[in-house]
From TrEMBL:
The keyword Coiled coil applies. It comes from Rhododendron simsii. InterPro entries: AminoTfrase-like_pln_mobile. It holds the Pfam family PMD. Residues 873-907 form a coiled coil. It comes from the Eukaryota. This is Aminotransferase-like plant mobile domain-containing protein. Residues 144-559 form the Aminotransferase-like plant mobile domain. Keywords: Coiled coil. The lineage of its organism: Eukaryota, Viridiplantae, Streptophyta, Embryophyta, Tracheophyta.
Amino acid sequence: MALFNDHWIDDHQFLSISYEGAAPATQVDLWVHDPAIGALALDWDLSPDSHHLSRWYIESSRELFNHGKSAFLSGDALLLRSSLHKKNNDSERFLLLGDRIINGDAKWGNTTPQFGEISFIDGYWEWLEDVLARNKDMLTSAKIYDAVFASLFTYVRNTNLIRSFCELWCPSTNSLHVPIGEVSISLWDLRQTGGLSIDGIFYDEVVPSARELTGVDKKDVPLLPPSCKYLFLAYRKIYCASEASSVTVHDWVKFWFKEDPRYKQPPARVQKKRLGEPRTSNNPTGFIGEKKLRSKDTEKVFDDLGVEKDVKEETNLAALLSCWLCIFVLPNKEVDQIRPGVFKVASMMAQGKRFSLAVPVLASIYHGLREITSSPNPSKCGAAFPIHYVYGWLGRYYDSYFLSAPTKFECGARMVRLAGEKKAKHFSFQEACDLLKSITPSTLSLLALGKPQQGIVTDHGKHSDSWNDYIISLRSSYLTLRRSNEHIVEPYSPHRFARQFRFCQDIPGKLREELSTGTLEAIYQLWESCTRLNTRADFMIPSHSSEGLTTKEYVEWWEKSSSNFCGDKLACEKPKSPLAAAKGKNIITFRTTKSKLATEVTPPSSKSKEKEVTKAVTKESKKAAVVNPKTPLSIPASKPKPIVSKASEPMGENKKRTNIVLSEGSSSDKGECHWKRSKKKAADSDSRLKEKVTVSDLAKLDYNLDGILDDLPKTSNHVELENQFVSDEREGSVDGPDPFDLALRSKHNFVSGAIHLPSTSKPSTSKPPMLGHVALSTVTAFDTGSMINHGRLLAAKMYDSNIKSILGKTPFEKLTSLKPKLQVIYAEFSKLELDYSPLQTQVEKYIQNTTNYVSMRSNFASGMTSEVKERRLADVDTKRGQLMEELDQLDLEAKKLREALEGIDAQRAQKQHGVATLQEEQAVLEATEVMKPADMEVANNLEQLLKSELEEIQNLAWLD
């Protein structure tokens, strides 16, 4: 018989676990702490505090800065407020880990730190698949099915990317500092990427007392779920059988799950460049089949612990959740150990209780990053937190992983798309820094919820789970984590990264009070304030099409306050480069690659120093780009500094590399190019593109149409929707299309040639059409027909590419306005004697489909507000009640009819028996040769009776 007792040692309470008659050495003592939840929780006065505002937004007329267009404009700014900060425009520079490393105050060690990264556990995946198949309804009730499902895979990282992330993370603001300002991991990000609930019960990781573990209330209901005590008994059994002073997760899984393992440990991680998603993986497929019968060995585990039959499933689920909490949700510095403090929470989850997990998880992430960025040797600081959620965040905002198709997993945790042992892309340290600094404002708000039109949402506590969680995510607060006697407090300041919620970014101000820990009462008070609902506060929700801008004051403040390591500052004026567009005009630029610019030539006889190849691209004003085959590519005189570009290998016998040198001092014979024509002079003063373009510049340029679609606004990248072009200016509402996938698509999915719709699983890697090679002349014949055809082809490809680019960047609502301008382009196709009907058909179909989509979206969004949903649900409930009453009435009538039919069947059987008897008597009489008159009369009577009986039987059959 198991014994649970409370005893005290040096003013500390302990839970003693033993068995009756067992040796004293087998007794296990666990430190007990005061509970914050449950029947024995301390009673605190949770009075309203100053952390809540009646209105969490400000509207004011300000001068705004559009980073995408590098321009200032005047307009109404929608700002997110904070209750934790005071106004402060001081420009003291932030200090990042990158600055400390440059100054010599910190350095990375030679070891590769894990920081709490989950490792392979033999048997865990098989056990988890079994639990998911058996307990989907209970996990869904606890709002953790998606979060538990996400632990079914391996999550890896590029070491250079994580180091760069840490060096740009600011511990004083809990945000990532990049050239455009601050971005960060929000509570809403954790909900969307990790499936973690924000609202729920306080996460209280403590060992309960024996009184709480075995006690019952006044109604004889256990104070804790029965499964909780079996978890402690299993812990004692494993602890006593182990030589170590702890219970590892490997021992825990091996104790509970006795089935044969199917998955092997993934191979060691190899950091190398890959061009695409790996074809093979040692991870599970994610398919959850039907539940299977347990083996006798597994059943024996429950029998040995004395688990009652009706709580076996609950106990098995609680055991799995205990492991999940320790290794995946909230790992600590002993990442491979089971902590008994999680048993209480796990057993309550196994009964369907919903816990607020996003709050302690984000507190753990902030705290872990603070430890890393404040340490003189980050590799050895020993920080441990659920870093795989950071990987999920990076995969959401950056192109840092090879992503699986959105339809591969039926899971709301979007981080599963980057799961796999080979999914992390390879970056050098400099490439990783450049990637993190390359984020643009247009990619920040794709997870944000919105409305068709900007509107106010009042916190009355009756919204859907999604909107309640979103409201909590918008408020400034203190995040808390309680693990036994460890109390962690971290400030949460969503107004510092308000653009992620489609708000305008303003100077954040200074934190009023720095908190890092506190008493249990203070910790619980801060958590309750963070997650409180029904505050009656108002929130302004920006529209779906809103793009977060910044105020002019913020631009100036960030210029003075941002770290030197952060990189380039925000530009306060328009670019001075000639490549910048004039007002109301577009630019035609040509995209190419280094290898295509390299030219094949015969090596020169004399050795010369390497010089760079310079080229400039000219463009006619107010016309669409058409390549004229009769005009060679002009190469204007360059500046005194030449540019060197290595040529590719010739295709002939001589494969030596060489260089082409085109500089200002070249003689007239060297200034010639194809067909020995003399080099043209630089474009005249009316030309809008005179700048020298190097190889690296050309690789960054894109196509645009000059003057044809000049009234269109510049929008963000394009994506695909149902095999059609789609602008990413879509709603991120709860009921709308999923915005997560939009941020993870390639920015250039459209290719040259005929319109090929991109696949939904992988972004297109095709490149735009390129200009021909520049090579020394070897032409012996001048084929004008071939040249003209080639020019037509280049022009057609250029038009095709630009049409698709413009369509992808144009908001759905303005696509129909492009039809007259598209006709102008079709006319140019006609002049080139090219068949443009397939392109025209697809473009018109695309415009029609997007028009239908906008209409449906508008109708859906306008008709499915939370109030309308509630009304419709009420109507459905009313109609359902009426239908149930009608169904009961029909059942009653059907029962009466069945009883009547049974009586009719009995009468019919009786009549049929009588008829058979009469027929036998008639047959006997007919067999008599001489019949008496009396007998004849009897026979006639029998015949008449037989006829009447037959008629009655027919009537009964008709009724039946």
